[in-house]
Amino acid sequence: MSKSYRILKSELPDLPELLNMAQKAFIEAFTANNKPENVKAYLDEAFTLDQFRKEYQTQGSTFYKLVTGTRIIGYTKVNLTPAQTDVHDPESLEIARLYLLDEFIGLGLGKMLLDQAIDFAKQKQKKYIWLGVWEHNPRAISFYERNGFEKFGSHPFPFGDELQTDWLMRKEI
């Protein structure tokens, strides 16, 4: 029996379950190539219920959840200009986060989340979308390149006691 997957706009009551899924997906994605204490420090800073609530309530930020049945298995957070982390171009939309649980990678679901972000950008009449991706995350970089993104810069990314580098990538829409 095939599963059905849906993308829905997240609501405030979703945040505890969304946070639990996000923490798990982040650990799956970044523990192998980072010091455990840095992963924990970042989780304690960026993946708390208070922080998610603050981001959810930030003007210009929108969260979408990917669900199968009632289970949240992925999400994306998009930012319009006032909430963007770097570019701050009113003609752009930032994909601030796009995470999927490991067990669902390879099923085309990341593309579903990406397409949701692109559709949102088109509805808002944006000219391009952009995002930051860790330079040592070849799977994510390859995914974005396959979907038409190109590197246009980089920025420092504080991660625990390290300063890492994120590539900035964009796609015209």
Protein architecture, described:
This protein is of the alpha+beta class and 173 residues long. It is 34% helix and 34% strand.
Q: Outline of this structure?
A:
With 173 residues, the protein is α+β, with helices and mostly antiparallel strands.
- Which structural category fits the helices and strands? alpha+beta
Strand order of the largest sheet: 1-2-3-4-5-7-6
Question: For the terminal residues, how far apart are their CA atoms?
Answer: 35 Å
Shape: globular
Report mean pLDDT, rounded to a whole number: 95
**CATH homologous superfamily, by name?**
Gcn5-related N-acetyltransferase (GNAT)
- Strand count: 7
The helical percent reads: 25-40%
Beta-strand residue fraction: 25-35%
Q: Roughly how many Å is the radius of gyration?
A: 15 Å
Overall number of structural domains: 1
- Largest sheet descriptor: 7 strands, mixed
Given as residue ranges, the uncertain stretches (5+ residues, pLDDT < 50) are none
